[in-house]
Every structure is written in structure tokens, then in C-alpha cells.
Amino acid sequence: MAAFKWRDIATGLIVPVALVALWQTASSLGWVNAHVLPSPLAVVQRWFTYLLPSAAFDPSASSWLAWAVSGELIVDSLGSMGRVASGFLIGAGLALPIGLLMGASNRIYALLNPLAQVLRPIPPIAYIPLAILWFGLGNPPAVFLISIGAFFPVLINTIAGVRHVDGIYIRAARNLGASQSTLFLRVMLPAAVPHILAGVRIGIGTAFIVVIVSEMIAVNNGLGFRILEAREYFWSDKIIAGMISIGMLGLAIDIGVNKLNNHLLRWHRGLEH
User: Fold this and answer.
1) Residues contacting residue 130 through CB under 8 Å, at least 6 positions apart
2) Could you give the number of structural domains in the chain?
């Protein structure tokens, strides 16, 4: 099993490594303008500079931790992740109960679904002017936009999960005399969990995308803000370093959520196999 895992990882690295090698070759031969597309080595150097500021090389620094936690990249990453966590908890926290009610009740579904279907296609970016008008600048408008981005994936998947429970389970529970509340809590909700967790995974991914956009407009720190700042000064290497940081964080979040889903759905995997 481990051998297959490492083989898959090695196979997945072939294309990225080839592209980086081609990129470095083109840069070394002068085929591309270094100000427009810096070499991979320049980007890596900038990334480490971004991670470890000049204080890291100050002999007066009291300890490794003293200068490491003051790194620009670390501060920006923590700021972005804090906004993602706050916005996602608000958006998903509102979407989950509403989605459960809409999925379990045809009356509530008929009442709220038209509004949800009208608002769902509107991208969170379109709310930026209203967010700034309502909340000003800083974290509140960013958290508001992230909440919207996380809300609808969780809502739609929760509704779908509850409404598409296999009818055999419902009929069996009713034949055994289950009440409506027992039917919902013991049959419909557990059966809907895979859909709900899929919505959570999509919602977190959407929240991470939205936070980058919101930081370019409403706040003065974070990965999105730092990329916009680098653009103002034509620091192409720092822009790409920031993009790589975003990709690495996004990959780490997705892997973590996927592992959590697999852990919570062990019973479901067992039934499938």
C-alpha cells in the first residue's frame, strides 16, 4: 500500500517538475523578461525572504521562535486563515440548519427555495460594494463575503442530502413505528451526512478563494493584500511566491478536510464495500 502511495506521488510530480525545469531553462536562456516572469530560483529566494524577514538574520534575536513568528508570510497566512475560519463558521453555521429544515419540510422548501435559487448564482465578489458600504473596511466585510461564499455550497448539499434519502430507509422506519422526529434524527440526518460533508469541503474551498479577493480590497494584511501590494511595486517574484503559498495552504486544507471526511464516514465506506 505504501509503495503504491509513493508511486502515485512520484507520478504526480512528473509534470510539475518538467514545467519548472522548462521555466528555469527559458529564464536562464533569456527567452522571457525577468520582470514579467522571474526564474523559479528567484521565486524560491523571494519566498524564503517573504517567510523569514531581515529580523531572522539579526544576531540580537533572542530565539528562533522570536523571529520566525514575525515573518511576513506567517503573519499573512494566519490572518487569511483566521478570516476563512470565521467566515466559514458563520456561513456554514447558518446554512446547515436552514438546509436541514428545507430538506425535511416541503412547505419550508417551497417558501425559501425561490429566494435561494435567485441569490445562489450571484458571486460573492458582486457583494463587495455593499460589504464596504455596510461594514466599512477591515475584517468585517471580508468575513461577510467569505460567509456568503461558504453558505450556498453547504446549503445546497444539505438540502440535496436530506431530500434524496433512499425511500427504503424511510418506509422501513415508519413501518417500525418511528416518529417524525426519530425519522429525521436517526434516519434522514445520518443518511445525509455524506452530502453535507461534501458541501463543507466545497464551502471551505470557496471561502479560501473569496478571502484572497476580499483581502485585495478591504484589509491591510493577508495573502491577497500582499499580492496586490507586490503588483503595485512590480515585484513579480513576490506575486508568484504569494500564489505558491496560497496553493500550498489550499492543498493542505483540502487534504485535511478530505481525511476528516474519510474518518467521519468510515461507516459509510464500510457499507459501500
Assistant:
1) none
2) 1
